[in-house]
Each structure stands twice: as structure tokens, then as C-alpha cells.
Amino acid sequence: MSQPSTTTNDVIDVLDVHRFPEGPLEDYLAENVEGFSRPLEVQQFQGGMSNPTFRLSDGRGQTYVMRKKPPGELLPSAHAVDREFRVISALGPTEVPVPRTYALCEDERVIGTAFYIMEHVVGRVFLDPRLPELAPSERKRVYDSMNESLAALHNVDYREVGLEGFGRAGGYATRQIKRWTQQYINAKTDEVPAMDHLMAWLPDNIPGDDAVSIAHGDYRLGNIIFHPTEPRAIAVLDWELSTLGHPLADLAYNCLAYRVAADLRGNLTGDDIVDLGIPDEAAYLDAYARRTHRDAIPEWTFFLVLSLFRLASITQGVYYRGLQGNASDPSAVERKGTCARLADAAWALVEKR
Fold first, then answer.
1. Nearest one of 231, 179, 30 to 117, comparing CA atoms
2. Quick one: CATH architecture of 125-351?
3. CA dihedral 255, 331, 73, 306 (to 10 degrees)
């Protein structure tokens, strides 16, 4: 059984593959982060398949979080910590719950890769979407808070927060199909027929609706910190894939737990979720539509298929990095076959239309 939840104080010793020179980092913090006090202690947050994340403690017991690029050869456009820093900083004054940011370092001479420093938000991270550790009333409020935070993000005017150049306005689906097709090809290890079908079908079925918002890109329960005791979102994390994009693509990705099981972390595909206090997909979509002033959620199948295709490509990249030995989590090599499973689920949706 997997751990149903964790806290943002759960850390381990730094993995050998992710070690870096701590002295230069300490010097950088002393010069660039107001209030930092020597000496520095570094520990690593466990889990996560992308940018390695560390808890930094200073001589006064103040804690910070550092996100850095992983070591080794990286796929093009991946692990963009500078984009993470920019979007989190821009969203700070809005209703979207994000950590406070302190500093971005793009000088690879300091620790070997680019990195940024942000607030250490203490709270809970729920790994199992069925929330077995909570009461039904709390489960409902957790999902409502997750829904509210996503709607708040999509209601932000990206121009007003200085993100007009954060991506291209319009054409998001076309760019996503191109990007994740190329990423899949770059990380391909085995033949996956469903991926070939999807790469042919998606470009020919792009909807005419070309709405634009800030898109998180990986919005899911496990990327949100909730209050230590209340079922309330207090920080959305992992903005590496954020851009200007279509809000319904973000929403579809958020709803994938209703369609497929996350590896070892449960799923919402059973018939009993309403009894558990968790809204079904239709109720979740209705709440989002109300909060974003939409009458309906159009072209839902396309956006679900696109999201599954993206996730299939992402997990193939995780597996590929695992084979190289530079993934953030050693269990990345266990993801063999996940790409095919997700692609098969996506193609099944196409065939059922």
C-alpha cells in the first residue's frame, strides 16, 4: 500500500545523484536572501519525478525550499526553473495560493545547475485521490478548494500580472501536440501503437474554441499543499509546465483521476466516490463552470485525450531519465509500460466517441 498523504516536513538525506557543493550555495543565500543566517543544512524532499526539491535550514531554524534542475543531459525545454520562479512570483498578489519567492539563480557555477529559492509552506500533501484519512465532509471541502484554486488561476488576467510574454496567446493545442510528440520521440524506448494513433488523430481534431489563460500544466491533488488541520489549499506547487494555454486543457488534466488510476495511489474510477463525499466528474465540472462564468464545458473528450497524451509523453520521459540514472526519484525505472497504458486509455476515448 502507498502512503495516502505526506507533510512538507518529510525529508531524507540528499541522494548521491543529486549532491551539489553546499558551500557556494550557503554563500549565495547569505548574499541574496534577506534574513538568512549561517550555517546551512540541506535535506531532500522524497518523491517527485522532475526537478529535485530540497529543504534548506539556516542557523536560526528558518527553513526555505530550493528547486533545481536535475543533473545530466536534459530533454529540450524541460525543467524550466526560471519559468516556475516567474509565474509563482507573478501570482503572489492574486487569489491563487502560491509560496513566496526569494531568489532565482541562473549562474550554473554556483551549484552546477540553475535553481530558485522560495518559502517553505508547512502543510499536508494528499497522494491518494480517495483521501482515505479524511472524513466525507472534509473530502468534499478538499476537492472544492482544489476546484476553487484552479478557477482562481484561470480567472487571472495574465496581462495584468505581467505574464503577457509567458507564452503565445492562442494555438495552445497545436503547440502542445507538437511539443509532446517531439518529447515522446526523443524519449522513445519501445513501440507504442496507441501513441502513433494519437499523434495522427489529435492534429486533425483541434476544437475551434481558442480561449487563453495561465495554465498550470500539471494541476492535480498531489501538487497542492493543504493547511495542516483544515481542508483548504494554501499553496500550489510544481509550475514547471506552466504557460499561457487553454484553461480546459488544465481542467481535463486535473480530472484524469476520474478516468485512469495513478500509479499505486488509488483512483476515482469506482462507483462509490459520492458516498465517500467526493464530487463526481459532472459535479466537479459544474463547480468549475460556475466559478469561471461558463455555461458549459465544450469538446471535453478532445481535452481529456490531449491530457492523457501529454501525461503519456511525460511518463515516458520520466522512464527514459530513470534509465539514464538522473531522475529525481529512483523508482522512475519502474514506469516502464505506463506510457502505453495511458495512451491506450486515450485511444479508447477516441474510439468511444
1. 30
2. Alpha-Beta Complex (3.90)
3. -20
